[in-house]
Write a structure and sequence with these properties.
- The complex is a heterotetramer.
- Chain A is an all-alpha fold.
- In chain A, 75% of the residues lie in helices and 3% in strands.
- In chain A, strand 1 (133-136) and strand 2 form a beta hairpin.
- The model of chain A has no long low-confidence stretch (mean pLDDT 88).
- Chain B has helices at 2-28, 35-52, 57-79, 84-104, 106-109, 131-154, 156-173, 178-204, 214-227, 232-252, 256-277; strands spanning 115-116, 122-123, 126-127, 206-207.
- Chain B is built from 11 helices and 4 strands.
- By secondary structure, chain D is an alpha/beta fold.
- Chain D is built from 10 helices and 10 strands.
- Chain D has helices spanning 42-49, 96-101, 109-113, 119-131, 147-161, 177-192, 204-210, 228-232, 235-242, 244-248, and strands at residues 2-13, 16-27, 31-35, 57-62, 65-66, 81-83, 165-169, 196-200, 213-218, 221-226.
- Chain D starts with a strand and ends with a helix.
- Classes of the chains: A mainly alpha, B mainly alpha, C alpha/beta, D alpha/beta.
Chain lengths: 289, 288, 237, 249
């Protein structure tokens, strides 16, 4: 079967691994703060543009700038949480108010990045680095894509270990289940939320870096990738920890296999059609009970 | 002077969009991000009709509305199944899907290349190619929609919308078929957005999908919120601020390619500050 | 005031926004003693418990532990060996019974110690053993109350603040809950400050209580004295 | 003639039967007191009756019509029922006047589209608001009212709706003495004008004064019904409230 299906499958898996990081980190924050946080898309871009700035001015090699990008994205997410969303939550703001505030933050981050870096697409790898491609099952996969898969698997393992096996993870799960009860038994919910936001923001920063390694990053696509992460975490089943991972790879594969017949531009449409179908079935299922 | 007219036309186009979204969010509490799609549908209907057939502008506006009504009814029914957070995601999804259709149905919409050469209308033997005449047309349409919205808000229908915003279940227990009310206001506001789309297409004589994307929906949302929820004059002020702010920056000497980014930055900042201290916006009466 | 008292409130005033929730409330709870908070709905009983636990800021007056004044902060209370079981927020419905108990020991660093404490507490609450893997939200009212009590015991508190432990329970189960409280009090020398309506069962636990009316302690001392003064008013209110 | 007949109603939250096999009859043009300690399931029964909660099992007949479609119950107006809530559910960001005017609105979308200020509505609203002494505050936002005023506003809304069956969930809680008097007078007026009233209340003074008939509920079951004076002096009833040995002293 010399058709391009294997290649599409590989692209699907690579896309799935990037969506995984976004979906996992988005879900971690959503379960604690209970609102759709668009600023998460902005933090994604902070990660990639910091790494871009460092490599471009050859201040650091790829690995270090990637690390610094992740940490700064983490700090960015943390600062946004403490300066914007925490005071709003203390005022008892509804999830709608929090959502619109996150829209504002997203607009700010995007505008700053466009002012500093302009609108063009940037790729972290300079053209001259030789990209070795391997072929498996009749499709080609570049060494950077292999790197992305590796990093993704490592990140999933670390996060699962941290949030599934440790007491810290259990407390975070308890806060997600009922923040009021957690407060009443003496857990410092805001401290834990801050730590989780920092971890999740650095993970989404890592996702931003991987995107700019694979396909290249531009300010207008940060939000688009966040939507994919949100869809993945919903269709994967947000209540169990690894649900978003399943959702992410499912979405990655459906999108890339979907464009086998249609052209590439249909990816976004496919993703949201999948979301609406899923939400409708979930609604019908609850009505039946 | 010519430039001022251009700004005034832009103002009336975006004001119509802002008013219609305010009816949805400010009065009924529905946060819909599908608005740019209806804006786009109106634009494409008018563009295609004016370019390929001899229909008059007013007829094309009417046909645009007639096309949008069944579609918005259908989309309204879909998105009404969901509660607050899912509703917003679904409405956003519908916008992305329709944007995808504008982009990819190239035989109909000419895809990403868009449609050019959309003529200016000639009505009652007034040639609207000159901007000042066109401004008249735009202002008349804005005035009509403003008065119509002002009327809706004053009727019992408007009052029921507000009860849906406040506590839909209690409103249901009083015997109001809230689903039907939400659908009617959704279709009305979608038609208003279509009218503004027709104005936009004929004025710029070129349209492409990029001006009907999710970012446009979010832009309209930010105008409505900053202007003030549940306050129609507030939306006018919000739109005025949206249009004039870049001119202020140009006046102060900011290079013009940075002007729109600074506007987005300023808008983002204002939204965050408003949510902190005045969630109902400048002149708004409804706190989210 | 005698300083061997474990907990002491001296003219404490607290507000809910503009509404004066507590007005110069004074009360004491001795070592290993059970004190009661009585009064009609909305008289501020649970507000007293919330204020002691630092969930509500104190406007004036002083709270002292073993005679030493301190400013209660909710997430430092476990270290001061305080535990609170509030009516609305008793358990984590989405977590299993076992996880609820583990969370009870969140302030204990070593995992082995937490597991040891869980098994010790299960000796006192044997009915929870068969429910360990069931989601707490699916437990019956009585079982949830037992779980909340068990969870509050994990961290070895010296005093447990209990808010309406028998709300919604049938008289039989309410009696069981109260027997359990009596057992914990005698076995582990844990003192209690309990806010509840059910006088009959409360009188079985302790003879000393405080009667609250819209945020003010209008009467304190022996239960029978409170009863004579306020019999009609109490149920008629 | 029975206005409402409830036949072994059951409701379960998780594994707890909040209401199990609850049956009762509410007679036309009477004031029925519905009492029981906190958490006994009183509010849940009322929520089941007015469609706020879905019914697990059991039947409800309202003026002899079996309410088949459980979902329809949420539309209380069509069953001629109006109610207040323990924690008042009023439209906070609308004026006091609009909060009451809404129940006199035309119900159909089209007709409500052409209904602006109508003399009939506003005069009825004024009459009702004057009765509860809120006419002075008619243009204030409902959200800015005190707890007692919010209770009274919700009470006024039920008066304005003029339905055959009125259910009040702790209408006297949070009211000052003279306002309690006004409310009890208005409830008696409701009965005089042929309405059927269900009164959930802890304040036994009001129950004894107003109720023709009392239903006592505890832990999800109906444990007693009859004349208030007879019921409330029975030992087993007092036992639930305050305890055996204490009240014998």
């Amino acid at each position: 079967m010399n058709s391009i299906l294997p290649q599409l499958l590989i692209n699907g898996i690579v896309a799935g691994s990037i969506y995984t990081l976004i979906a996992l980190s988005y879900n971690l924050i959503f379960k604690l703060t209970k609102f759709s946080n668009l600023a998460h898309g902005g933090v994604l871009m902070i990660g990639s543009y910091v790494a871009l700035y460092l490599t471009q001015n050859s201040l650091a090699n790829l690995w270090i700038s990637g690390l610094v990008g992740m940490v700064l994205a983490g700090c960015g997410g943390f600062i946004i949480e403490k300066t914007t969303f925490l005071p709003l939550r203390k005022k008892g703001a509804s999830s709608m108010v929090l959502f619109i505030a996150s829209l504002g933050v997203m607009m700010i981050i995007q505008a700053i990045i466009v002012i500093i870096f302009s609108n063009q697409s940037w790729n972290l790898l300079s053209i001259d680095t030789i990209s070795v491609t391997y072929s498996i099952f009749g499709g080609l996969i570049s060494n950077t894509q292999v790197l992305i898969l590796l990093i993704d698997v490592i990140a999933i393992l670390i996060l699962t270990a941290l949030f599934k096996l440790t007491l810290f993870g259990k407390i975070v799960k308890a806060i997600g289940d009922d923040a009021e009860t957690a407060k009443v038994i003496g857990i410092d919910t805001e401290k834990y939320t801050g730590i989780v936001v920092f971890i999740a923001s650095s993970i989404v920063g890592l996702a931003g870096i991987l995107i700019s390694l694979d396909a290249g990053m531009e300010p207008s696509i940060g939000l688009g990738f966040l939507f994919k992460g949100i869809i993945a975490s919903i269709i994967g089943g947000a209540n169990n920890f690894l649900g978003p991972v399943v959702g992410a790879f499912f979405l990655g594969l459906i999108e890339n296999v979907g464009i086998w017949k249609l052209r590439g531009e249909w990816k976004d449409v496919i993703a949201f059609v999948v979301l609406i179908l899923y939400l409708s079935f979930r609604k019908i299922k609850t009505l039946k009970e | 002077m010519e430039y001022l007219i251009h700004l005034a036309i832009l103002l009336s186009i975006y004001a119509i969009l802002g008013i219609s979204l305010n009816l949805l969010l400010g009065y009924t509490g529905l946060i819909s991000l599908t608005h740019a799609s209806f804006f786009g549908m109106g634009a494409y209907v008018t563009a295609l009709l004016l370019v390929h057939t001899k229909t008059s502008f007013l007829l094309s506006v009417l046909l645009g509305v007639i096309l949008v009504m069944p579609i918005s009814t259908f989309l309204g029914m879909i998105s009404d199944q969901f509660n607050k957070n899912d509703y917003m995601l679904v409405s956003l999804g519908l916008n992305v899907i329709i944007f995808g259709l504008f982009n990819n149905l190239s035989n109909l919409t000419n895809g990403a290349l868009g449609i050019s050469g959309i003529p200016r209308p000639v009505l009652f033997n007034i040639d609207f190619s000159s901007n000042s005449n066109y401004l008249l047309l735009a202002l008349v349409l804005l005035l009509l929609i403003y008065l119509f919205s002002h009327y809706i808000v004053r009727t019992s229908f408007g009052r029921v919308l507000k009860t849906i915003r406040e506590d839909e279940n209690v409103s249901k227990s009083f015997g109001f078929n809230t689903r039907y009310y939400k659908l009617v206001i959704f279709v009305i506001t979608a038609s208003m957005a279509a009218v503004s789309g027709s104005l936009y297409a004929s004025y710029f004589s070129y349209i492409d999908p990029s001006s009907f994307s999710v970012t446009t929906s979010m832009l309209i949302l930010s105008i409505t919120i900053i202007g003030g929820l549940a306050s129609l004059p507030g939306t006018l002020i919000g739109t005025l601020f949206f249009i004039l702010f870049p001119e202020l920056l140009r006046f102060v000497g900011i290079p013009s390619e940075e002007v729109f980014q600074l506007r987005q930055l300023m808008f983002g900042l204002i939204i965050v500050l408003l949510m902190m201290h005045r969630p109902q916006g400048f002149m708004g009466k409804y706190k989210l | 005031m005698k300083n061997n008292s474990l907990l002491n409130l001296d003219n404490v005033t607290a507000n809910y926004g503009s509404f004066k929730a507590l007005d110069r409330v004074s009360l004491t709870v001795g070592e290993g003693e059970i004190a009661l908070l009585l009064g009609p709905n909305g008289s501020g009983k649970s507000t007293v418990l919330k204020t002691i636990f630092g969930l509500l800021p104190i406007v004036s007056g002083k709270i002292s532990l073993h005679g030493l004044p301190f400013k209660p902060v909710s997430f430092e209370m476990p270290m001061n060996s305080f535990a609170l079981v509030l009516q609305g927020q008793k358990i984590f419905p989405g977590l299993s019974t076992h996880e609820n108990l583990e969370i009870g020991g969140f302030s204990i660093k070593s995992k082995e110690l937490v597991d040891k404490r869980i098994s010790e507490v299960l000796d006192i609450f044997p009915m929870l053993i068969k429910l360990m893997e069931i989601k707490a939200g699916l437990l019956s009212g009585g079982e949830q109350q037992m779980l909340a009590l068990a969870r509050s015991l994990i961290a070895n508190p010296k005093i447990i603040l209990l808010d309406e432990p028998t709300l919604g329970l049938s008289p039989k189960i309410a009696k069981e809950v109260f027997h359990k409280i009596k057992e914990i009090n005698e076995l582990n020398k844990v003192s209690f400050l309990i806010a509840d309506h059910n006088l009959n069962l409360l009188s079985f636990l302790s003879r000393r209580g405080y009667y609250l009316e819209s945020g003010k302690v209008t009467l304190c001392g022996n239960l029978d004295k409170i009863f004579e003064k306020h019999f009609l008013k109490m149920i008629m209110k | 003639m029975t206005m409402i007949k409830i036949h072994n109603l059951r409701k379960r939250f998780g594994r707890a039967d909040v209401v199990n096999n609850f049956s009762a009859e509410i007679f036309k043009n009477t004031i029925v007191g519905f009492v029981g300690p906190n958490g006994s399931g009183k509010s849940t029964v009322i929520n089941l009756l007015t469609g706020v909660e879905t019914i697990d099992h059991g039947d409800i007949y309202i003026s002899d019509i079996l309410v088949k479609n459980k979902k329809k119950l949420i539309n209380n107006y069509s069953f001629n029922i109006s109610r207040t809530y323990q924690d008042p559910r009023i439209f906070d960001q609308m004026s006091v006047l609009e909060n009451v005017l809404i129940v006199l609105n035309k119900r159909k979308v089209l007709s409500s589209f052409f209904e602006t200020k109508k003399p009939f509505n506003s005069s009825k609203v004024e009459e009702v608001l004057r009765k509860v002494d809120l006419w002075g505050k008619r243009s204030a936002l409902a959200g800015d009212l005190s707890y007692g005023q919010r209770k009274i506003l919700e009470f006024a809304r039920v008066l304005a709706m003029d339905t055959r069956i009125c259910i009040f969930d702790e209408p006297f809680a949070g009211l000052f003495a003279e306002m309690k008097l006004i409310v009890s007078e208005l409830i008696l007026d409701l009965k005089a004008s042929g309405k059927t009233v269900v009164l959930i209340e802890h304040d036994m003074d009001q129950i004894v004064k107003l109720a023709d008939y009392v239903l006592v509920m505890n832990a999800g079951k109906l444990i007693a019904k009859g004349k208030p004076s007879k019921i409330l002096s029975r030992n087993d009833i007092l036992d639930i409230y305050i305890g055996k040995d204490l009240h014998e002293k």
